Amino acid sequence: MLLLQKDWSRLLFAVTLGMISTVAQAEPRYVLEKVVEVSRHGVRPPTSGNRQAMQAGTGREWPQWLTRDGELTGHGYAAAALKGRYEADYYRRQGLLASGCPSAGAVYVWASPLQRTRATAQALMDGAFPGCGVAIHAAATEQDPLFQTDKMGLAPLDAERASTAIRQAMGGSPEQVKTRFGADIRRLQAAVCLPQQACPAFEQPWEITQEHDGRFSINGLGTLSNMAESIRLAYSENQPTARVAFGHGVNASAVAPLLPLLTARYDFTNDVPYIAQRGGSVLLNQIALALAADQTSAGAPPAARWLLFVAHDTNIAYLRTLLGFSWQQGLYPRGNIPPAGSLVFERWRDRQTDQRFLRLYFQAQSLDQIRQLSPLSALSPPLKTEFSHPGCRQLSLGVLCPWAEAMQRMHAAIDPTALPAVQYRP
User: Fold this and answer.
1) pLDDT in tens, 149-185
2) Each residue of 224-276: pLDDT tens digit?
3) Which residues of 395-404 are buried (b: 16+ CB within 10 A; e: fewer)?
4) In angstroms, rounded to a whole number, what is the distance separating the alpha carbons of residues 317 and 102?
């Protein structure tokens, strides 16, 4: 039966309407507008000072690495490049970045001045944009007030207040705390000390100490936590297991029980709120400025779609303390910040209501993902922990928190007296 002209018109209208509806449904409701990320550097050998303390404290020669002390290794570069590729692929899928090399001003990278942070920044960008030659920016001096506020004495600590805050965090005297960690200490001691031989690091009393640069540490705990860190780094570097914890780090499950003293160090220094506020306010303020602005203003970082800071675990510990955020991922102990692990701030917009949201999460490669240089993908992602508090929305794309409340919390955590004039040098 032939259709009349008006019937054809109705059919065409219905098909067109259906196509429009399908397109509307396919378009995501939430759009990613901006990312600010703070990454730790990748795998490195122990620093020279830590190596000397560990050797004196155990009476043993710790394995030498092919890379100079404290500098990013080739393996660390490769692991960071894999993470960079995964991130850029994700941002392209979300429409934040176009395919190929980034357009001018779309990506900006600022690294702490040390070799391991600058090299990690290069690795992340080489993985994200191979062959594009994305510039890595860093201060020309050995220290940058953005990352070394505390070391530079720009926000000095009140010694009495800091010491009191540390004791409160400990919940007892340093020696009482050492007793509480007895099982963790004995486990590490069994891995790094020779039987029936002197191992003085484990006999040293724990004491709250103010260093020459004004920062605080727990004397006694510091060397033990550096041993744990060195064991984790050696395993991540894919060193032969005979060289990892003197043969005791045969796999990730054997390495993990040797790491809890890393958490203790964080708990009693970087994660103390007063110390974190003095040391982390400059960086958190720059993050807040970057998230809120689409145009560069005085004192604010460049208005890039993906702004990447490459820094240190201390910086991330300060930030997560100010934000009230913690995590426990995979075999890592609570609050651990693995090589190239990063704190990510994403600004999202609801197309329907034009409301904005903040998504905050911490992501890191697992022990074996770093050791085996495992490619990352949507099917094999890094470890990821989302931040949430009352009022946030759990969606398939992640946890979105109301913008105004999130920014208010961020600004409330910043100590305005700890903010020297920090200007960027693009």
Assistant:
1) 988 888 999 999 999 999 999 999 999 999 999 999 9
2) 999 999 999 999 999 999 999 999 999 999 999 999 999 999 999 999 999 99
3) eeebbbbbbe
4) 30
Query: What three-state secondary structure class fits 38?
Result: strand
| Residue/partner pairs of 381-387 with CB below 8 Å, 24 or more apart | 381/86, 382/83, 382/86, 383/329, 383/330, 383/332, 384/329, 385/327, 385/328, 385/329, 385/361, 386/359, 386/360, 386/361, 387/323, 387/325, 387/360, 387/361, 387/362
What CA–CA distance (Å, rounded) separates 304 from 208? 42
What's phi and psi for 107, nearest 5 deg?
-130, 135
Measured between alpha carbons, how far is 203 from 180 in angstroms, rounded to an integer? 15
Distance from C-alpha of 313 to C-alpha of 144, rounded to nearest angstrom = 15
- Say if CB 360 and CB 354 are below 8 A apart: no
Q: How far is CA 101 from the centre of its chain?
A: 25
The three-point CA angle 216-218-223 to 5° equals: 120
192 vs 424: CA distance, rounded Å = 44
Helix axes 313-323, 273-292, angle to 10 degrees: 90
| Residue 199 DSSP label | -
Assess contact for 227 and 244: CB atoms under 8 A.
Answer: no
- pTM of the predicted model, to two decimals? 0.92
Integer CA distances (angstroms), 374 to 73, 83, 117, 368, in order: 17, 10, 22, 8
The DSSP call for residue 423 is -
Q: Is 340 left (phi over 0), alpha (psi -120 to 50) or beta?
A: left
379 Ramachandran zone, left/alpha/beta (phi>0; psi -120 to 50): alpha
Give pLDDT, residue 420: 74
| Residue written as token pair 């936590």 | 225
Q: Of 300, 306, 389, 293, whose CA–CA distance to 345 is shortest? A: 306
Structure tokens at 273: 């709120």
Axis crossing angle, helix 221-236 with helix 74-93, rounded to the nearest 10 = 70
Look up residue 4 and give its DSSP letter: P
Number of Cβ atoms within 10 Å of the Cβ of 234: 24
DSSP line for 330-386: TTSPTT---TT-EEEEEEEEETTT--EEEEEEEEE--HHHHHTTPPP-SSSPPEEEE
Instruction: Using only the alpha carbons of the chain, give its radius of gyration.
Output: 24
Tokens of 87: 């991130």
